[in-house]
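Standup notes
- DV: blocked on the single-chain target, sequence here:
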Amino acid sequence: MKQVWRNLPEKFLERLDVIIPSEKREVVLQAFSQKRPTTLRANTLKIQALQLLEELKSLNVELQPIPWWENAFIVKNMSLRELTEFDLYRQGFFYVQSLSSMLPPLILDPKPGEKVLDITAAPGSKTTQMAALMENRGEIVANDNSPIRVLKLEANIKIQGVTNVKIERGAGQTLWTRYPEYFDKALVDVPCSMEGRMCATESKSYEHWSTQKIKELTQRQRFLLRAAISATKPGGSIVYSTCTLAPEENEGVIDWILKKEKSVVDVEPINLEKLEYFSGMMNWSARVYDSRVKLTLRILPSMTMEGFYIAKLRKLNSNVPISFRHT
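- DV (later): unblocked, structure below
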């Protein structure tokens, strides 16, 4: 019988042999072979997690709590379509979101009253999560350059009861010129090749994959990260994340920014409790990365988690021309 994961692009599988630790390869291939269960988070702007648990239980929805965050759950007995029929969903009491996608906002840890940038925000999963973490206090500037995706972002913000978000429509790469060193924190969850979300039984999830696409995306990712750093105050935090496994889009981008902005940014360690993760790769192909890249982390694809990459940076010094700086 054919192993389902063999449907994935051959070149991708070759790269996987180098990227994934050998002892985890079988688990990862199995993860690519089947759909993950639906997962959700309680929207604490409208309801507390325990109350949501009770409400959904009364509707015969079986939820499994997640050990690393009290607001996240795995849905055990219902499809996404069934969940969307409930008034609780339509009224924004919970948000359907992959577990890995919930991690970057938790690592950025935005506080009530802070100014936060979400540079590629649509459709708003992480924007609305951050608004809940901030208790709708402070300011989030949520940017996206796709008119269709912005409509989705606006709809999600409204349904979730979010009131502290200002939407910007434009290229994230130039956003810093309107907001030079304005934000306390920035989330840079960039468009990527989405390898961590591939499913071997769904050809749509991998049909556009290519090493050429990875190359093109890498350029865009670099400029988005650099722009977010320029929009962040010295002393502020920047979280960079992707849902891909490609080192060029992950460690390679962080290595690039550390060279480009030598005295401007440093890498901060990330500590995730009750969750398995791996340190960033130290080299890829012929390239050896900056030793600080080891402080970044990888979440490998599993039966419940999508593949993800996360890096946390601290801005040490200003990197914008004096004429742009806020006085």
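- Follow-up: The radius of gyration is 20 Å.
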